[in-house]
């Protein structure tokens, strides 16, 4: 086969795949690209604030960069990268051959991708959104041009994909666990995925409702948020934060799960207090919905509402504290190996605790009147999201890379990445606590000299470049590994405890030749302790039924992308409405086609499986 034909078939393979492992790679690539874009936007922000009275970017452009940095990092980088880890690992961890709805899994990715693409088109079509990543209605209603419309429609498309993904993982974990895998034998990463997926199910609809209201106000003359027409801008804040605070836990809980796996593996110990970790995870998920208005202490809700939300917010510190101590006790007395993933895990604990402590400070309503809208809040937020989620994503990428790609990332370069990123992170954000306490407000594009902010801002900017350097080293590591990396074994780290380390690296298309029988917590470790080389099968070897690939998820998502573009311009151009309708017809046509096509999948025959398993054993 020629190189061109091979490239074509590879691209077509990924455009049509419904295999959870390939979809994980798609999420990883797309999320990684958006992460780099968000990082470049962050560097522009830090360059602008490095010195007083800087004119590196204009005030209007600064607002656009600031808005796109926050929106990109939360919705288009952190969220899909978390989904990449979930897709790569969870089905194998529970002994399943794929997720419950492979077609929907593919649809979820393409909706996210086209939503992100749509949002970033705004840079080229008249200006990006400029009302902050929270897009408060008082600012977003007044914003000229189509920037906010890109925000509203892009997030609706992308959010639909996330919602589909969350439902898919819920059903997968409830229905598709291997025989013997009770809920209290599930690995912690699977548990945190389960709770995060439940949060997605309940948190994304309020955001969708808010975005529909804002779309009606902006494009169709609605009056939900316009006070002059009887609307109320505070309603947007409630709807946004009813989504926005659980969103923090949607990101942080899987991060906790990643660190639980890593700390247990590289301490050579079962996770300390497994059942208390599970209950703490569920409790964090439950309490996450009772705290949204702590973002709104200064809007005038009154002392009773403020006090209730302050107490609820502080209560979350209890289950989080349980987790921190359990990780420390897991390491205590363990045979610790300081691999790259383990370095991130150890660095995460003090970093995240600092974010948590400043969270309790912000939760004190009276004190929050001082901290609110200052750089203290920026520092707190980044200690939670970067010190928690980004550290976990980098740790998880190093930890599961061999399982996803069959090659080991360089440990030497991995450790260089860790130290550059870790030092850069603390340089960037630690000083911002003090800038905030010294009175520096958020979202200002420049400041006057002589207020004592110059040194802090310069240090912060230098730190940002350290993080950028760490990211570049990671990219170099990935390129070198891809070209001449060391082939990974099935149990790549030698101390794997969960089922994903029992299958070859990368995992075969069908994951398991025979569905495994799970005989305890840390299913693979149980088998190892009995001296067995493989898993105990729960079924005889036979043909395996697999779902067919499909191009329709791509077409459905593309239709919504075209439709959003048309409806956005329907007030400006006569063709807008027509394009919008054509886009919807493409989407609904593809959905109808899906409903009438007999898609019975295909079989991988027993002989092929035996042959593949032999090859895997030799490798």
What's this model, at a glance?
With 619 residues, the protein is an all-alpha fold. Helix content is 68%, strand content 2%. The protein has one domain: Up-down Bundle (Cytochrome C Oxidase, Chain A), CATH 1.20.210.
Characterize the structure shown.
It is a single chain. This protein has 619 residues and is mainly alpha-helical. The chain has a single domain (3-550, 599-618), classed as Cytochrome C Oxidase, Chain A. The protein has helices spanning 3-16, 20-49, 59-93, 102-121, 137-140, 147-175, 188-219, 233-267, 274-287, 303-315, 317-331, 340-363, 365-371, 375-405, 411-437, 454-484, 523-529, 552-568, 575-596, 606-618, and strands spanning 407-408, 486-487, 544-546, 602-604. A two-stranded antiparallel sheet has the order 1-2. The longest helix is centred in the first third of the chain and has 35 residues, at 59-93. The radius of gyration is 24 Å and the shape is globular. The protein starts with a helix and ends with a helix.
Question: For the largest beta sheet, what order do the strands appear in spatially?
Answer: 1-2
What is the CATH-assigned architecture? Up-down Bundle
Number of domains: 1
Mean pLDDT: 93
Structural class: mainly alpha
User: Which runs of at least 5 residues are low in confidence (pLDDT < 50)?
Assistant: 1-5
The helix/strand order is: HHHHHHHHHHHHHHEHHEHEHHEH
- CATH fold description: Cytochrome C Oxidase, Chain A
What is the CATH class designation? Mainly Alpha
Helix content estimate: 55-70%
- Hey, roughly how much beta strand do the residues contain? under 5%
Largest sheet at a glance?
Answer: 2 strands, antiparallel
Which geometry do the CA atoms define?
A: globular
Name of the CATH superfamily? Cytochrome c oxidase-like, subunit I domain
Topology, number of strands: 4
Q: How much is the radius of gyration in Å?
A: 24 Å
Number of helices: 20
N-to-C CA distance? 24 Å
Oligomerization category of the chains in this entry = single chain
